[in-house]
Amino acid sequence: MTATMLTSEQIRSFDRDGFLVLPDFVSDEACGALRRRAVQLVDEFEPTARRTVFTTNEQTRSSNEEFLSSGPKVWCFFEEAAFGDDGELTRETSLSVNKIGHAMHDLDPEFEQFSYTRELAEVAADLGQPDALALQSMYIFKQPYIGGEVNCHQDATFLCTEPASVIGFWFAIEDATLDNGCLWAIPGGHRTTLRRLMKRHVEGDDTAGTYFEMLDDTPLPEVGDDRLVPLPVTAGTLIVLHGLLPHCSRTNTSPVSRHAYSLHTIPAGVGYPAWNWLQRGEDMPLRPLAAVADALAAHEAANA
């Protein structure tokens, strides 16, 4: 791959700060199409299916069967605050879901088209992943009033390779503001150690849950730490996140949702341990951004 998307200054900025903000990376039309498809997926989600809560607090997260098996699936996870004392939803389903995960980019045509683009493949290549593989995807709703706080974390805790290499691509599908829960990050915070690894129990039953292995007991910053800077952005913006960068988001206290789409990539050839929570079978290998993007473009041109 010889084409480039980023300037030398942008690459230096990412190396310096651990994040990079790229406004107008995707069109309003593409954002609108993805948002409509996400809402449709929620509407089609069986209301009688088990309602899986996604806990945004790492300290109390319990990894259930649906979470651990969602690597090759499309599953809806609910907000903790969406349920009343009786265990029933207090609002309609479309306003209760925390996120959809974790393989829409490979299983849903609309998400596939959004995820596998030549432009994104070139950004990944410019940042050291010319052979980037799409590992997992999440559509995050950050619902009005109940969109939960996500405490400071490093993506490499949850998506570990040997050596550490994961990059996060966070797309603002709607405007992300100070009121509705934009991202916060510490500039230069990626120049640090990986604090923890989240591992699944691989002995016996693979639905037995996960645990954290401490690597460095230096605490990550709390939400509200003065070192954190907000990253409010308009819809269509791409924020690229280094896997070691501490970042977070606050509770959405506003009446306005903050939809976002997140895709994580790793380079081909790195070690991906069997204790990572996200696993796929041999029948669903990870796909390269560039090759799939080219194949989709060729198919579209042939059918134009």
Number of strands: 15
Question: What name does the CATH topology carry?
Answer: Jelly Rolls
Percent helix: 10-25%
- The CATH fourth-level homologous superfamily: q2cbj1_9rhob like domain
Please state the CA-atom Rg, rounded to the nearest Å.
Answer: 18 Å
What is the makeup of the main sheet?
A: 9 strands, mixed
Number of domains: 1
Helical stretch tally: 8
Mean pLDDT: 91
Q: Tags for this entry?
A:
304 residues, alpha+beta, Jelly Rolls, four-stranded antiparallel beta sheet, 15 strands, 23% strand
Give a description of the structure.
The chain has 304 residues and is of the alpha+beta class. The protein has one domain: q2cbj1_9rhob like domain (Jelly Rolls). The chain contains eight helices and 15 strands. Strands 1, 2, 3, 4, 5, 7, 12, 14 and 15 form a nine-stranded mixed sheet that branches. Strands 6-13-8-11 form a four-stranded antiparallel sheet, with no helix packed on it. Strands 9-10 form a two-stranded antiparallel ribbon. Strand 2, helix 3 and strand 3 (74-78) form a beta-alpha-beta unit. Helix 6 runs antiparallel to helix 8. The radius of gyration is 18 Å and the shape is globular. The chain starts with 7 loop residues before the first helix and ends with a helix.
